[in-house]
Amino acid sequence: MSKNAAGARTGSEQALALYQELRGTPGGSFDDAARRLHLTPAERDECRAELTALGLLEPAGDRTSAPAAVAPDVALLRLLRHERERLENRLAETSRAHTTLETLAGPFLRAGMEPGSEVEVEIVEDRARIRRELADLTDTVRSSVHSMLTGSVRREEMPRELERDRERTARGVRVQAMYSHRVGQVPEMAQHLAERAALGVEVRLSAVVPMNMVLADENFALLPTDPHDPGSAAILARGPGLVRSYRALYDYCWYAATPYGHFDPGGHGGDGLTEQQRAALRMLASGIKDEQVARNLGVSLRTVSRLISELMQELDAASRFEAGVKAARLGLLDGEPHEPHEPASP
């Protein structure tokens, strides 16, 4: 091979040629092989470093011994073993770091947080687990329970709910329960609500109940992941930092609701609109579509269309937009509360 041909190779090509030369002359000298390929001292040293890094060259044990070529399969196995050892060491370091972080995230970080600021959120799909959590509230609740329900209570659940009411109110726990007006018009539910009220439960009816929700002691919240699907998985939240937000929503709905026994479904609020029409008007003014209004009110799309027609006639409006403008001018969208109560004391 000519010197010019050898010099035309790149560094990696020179290293490969030198490796093949060494493999072809077992026991031969590394320097002799480099000279046969007409490599300069600098090129020779670069090839030595590259082959050593790849594990294809066994480093010389001392100054007198020459480096020897290593078979490719042996070099590959050594490289894999080296990488495995490096990975195992890295995993061991990560494990130690994780243990340290767990220690810091435990008592040390909690010691630096404000009292009662911890928040725990869990998605629960097991219906039996949800029922157990609600049943346990009877024993653990200290000051208050607030619930809202979009539909009726199942007949087999009514006796158990009354028993829980009896135990809670006997211990001085404030119990509030909110239902939709349409639920209150079901005879069986009307009897059940009357029995709850007789035990000391504060019951209110609302034109719109946005979702199922149970709150307790400003430290426990249970609500669905999908407000429009009561059968969806539940969100179980603990910690006042989050539960207070749900309590603010509950209080808003509570103050806008009517105490049980004081609602006249055919009555008007002094402005020619029923409570149901008021609720539909507020939702339409907020840009909510008819389908969503129907779900929130628990009525059909046909009923929503009828309500809109009645609203436009009552407000003497030729369009929805004009009805919204007139309602705003008349203050019908303010949503002032009915007989607000002070929130329960902690």
Secondary structure elements and pairings:
Elements (H helix, E strand, L loop, with lengths): L2 H5 L3 H14 L5 H7 L4 H13 L3 E2 L9 E2 L2 H41 L7 E5 L2 H14 L3 E6 L8 H13 L3 E7 H4 L2 H12 L3 E5 L6 E4 L3 E5 L9 E5 L1 H16 L2 E2 L15 H11 L4 H8 L3 H14 L5 H10 L17
Parallel strand pairs: 4-5, 5-6
Antiparallel strand pairs: 1-2, 3-9, 4-7, 6-10, 7-8, 8-9
Helix pairs in contact: 2-4, 11-13, 12-13
Organism: Streptomyces filamentosus (Streptomyces roseosporus)
GO biological process, one term: regulation of DNA-templated transcription
InterPro entries: Sig_transdc_resp-reg_C-effctor (IPR016032), TrmB-like (IPR051797), Tscrpt_reg_LuxR_C (IPR000792), WH-like_DNA-bd_sf (IPR036388)
What is the β-strand count?
10
CATH topology of the largest domain: Endonuclease, Chain A
Derived from helix and strand composition plus strand pairing, the structural class reads: alpha+beta
**Which strands sit side by side, in order, in the main sheet?**
3-9-8-7-4-5-6-10
- Percent in strands: 5-15%
Tally of individual domains: 3
Q: Architecture of the largest domain, according to CATH? A: 2-Layer Sandwich
Unreliable stretches covering 5 or more consecutive residues = 1-7, 106-116, 263-270, 335-346
